[in-house]
């Protein structure tokens, strides 16, 4: 998926650089507005469909909500602090962090509603987050932590990093918590990113 | 911003209320993917058409690593403290 996404962006960059005249940017804006509503409608349908997650939440108790909430707070606070070091305004660093590793959605929302360079930064930063997660998950499991293994993946613990988590920590309960946490964080992304920017 | 919220809430309501037939979901999945690909393409066009962003790609890469490190460390530290406290209570 990441490969397909990168190829499409590169195709866009090449066409933007060489082919598409800046005068057609108006059409581009219209296309991206329509695409964004379609995309978010689809994201919403996905969220509403996750009755399984809602059932898991009820069964495990809403205490489990602490896991994605703490991951959200830690991700945003950490990015704000590190953002200050590179002189990034708080609204930008916090909104980028609220992508929680879901690079495609956070990047397109920020490109569309805020600015191209912050959209590009959100894309790169959230791709790196997933890469760091792939390295850290087995490491954190090795030093004997369990819940903490869920933290670096952010929203990706419901899909792309879930197999690695279940392989690294041999505990069915952790797998379910990771899935629920990833689903909740994924639902936070389209709400928090526009809110924070 | 308004558009994002309205589209999202509409989507959640549609599927939560079960307004869509089960076999339509593979279609909405494809539609979402088309929307995403179109947006990623237009994002690329905007990046390519903006000389400033192109010349800034290197610094953007560095900033991206700093931000993602901040996010990863922040969330790991908080969850580690939570897990530690949890264990002691057990």
UniProtKB/TrEMBL annotation, chain A:
Transmembrane segments annotated in the record for this chain: 5-24, 30-48, 60-88, 100-124, 131-154, 174-196
Keywords assigned: Membrane, Transmembrane, Transmembrane helix
Domain of life: Bacteria
CC per GO annotation: plasma membrane
Cross-referenced Pfam families: Lys_export
GO molecular function ontology, one term from the record: L-lysine efflux transmembrane transporter activity
PANTHER family: LYSINE EXPORTER LYSO (PTHR35804:SF1)
Protein name: Lysine exporter LysO family protein
Automatic annotation (TrEMBL), chain B:
Transmembrane segments: 31-48, 60-82
Top-level lineage group: Bacteria
A Pfam family recorded for this sequence: Lys_export
GO molecular function: L-lysine efflux transmembrane transporter activity
Protein name: DUF340 domain-containing protein
UniProt keywords, alphabetically: Membrane, Transmembrane, Transmembrane helix
